Amino acid sequence: MSIESKIIQILLNKKITVSTAESCTGGLLASKFTSFSGISKIYHTGLITYSNVSKIKQLKVSPSSLKKYGAVSRQVCAQMCYQLHKITQSQLTFSTTGVAGPNGGTKSKPIGLVFIGIYFEKNIYVEKLNFNSSLSRKQIQIKTVKECLQMASDIINEL
Fold this sequence. Notes:
Blueprint: H1 3-14, E1 18-22, H2 28-34, E2 43-48, H3 52-59, H4 63-69, H5 74-88, E3 92-98, E4 113-120, E5 123-130, H6 137-158
Parallel strand pairs: 1-2, 1-3
Antiparallel strand pairs: 3-4, 4-5
Helix pairs in contact: 1-6
C-alpha cells in the first residue's frame, strides 16, 4: 500500500477533515485526495491560490508578510494553512508554496525551494525542502505532494 493510500485511509478511519491551499502544486494535492473513493466524507475544500492577490483575497494572508518575506517563505506558508483552517474549520489543512521551475528561481529562492505547511490540532508545522533544480517542474510538484502526505503521516502518528 502506498503512503498516499495509508494516510488517506487513516484520515478516513479517524474522520479527520481535510482542506488544501496550493500554490506551486497547482491542485495536484487536491487531485491526490479526490482520487480516493469515499473521500467526500472528510475532504472539504481545495484552493489553488497561485497569485499573491489570491492568497490575500481567498486566504486572508497578510499583504505585509507577502511584501516582507515573499510568497515562497516559511511565514506565508504558515499563514496559508492556518488561515485555511480558520476559513474551513477543517481539522487538518495543507499549504504548498515554492519555485517549481524551470524559470523563476533567484539566488535566495532557487528552483526547487518549496515550503509545506500543515495545521493540525492547534499546531502549525512548516517544512522547508530543497529539491534538485535539475528536476522537472512536474517532478518537483509530485515530490512535494508525496512529502505533504509523509509529513501528515508523521504528525498524526506522533500523536
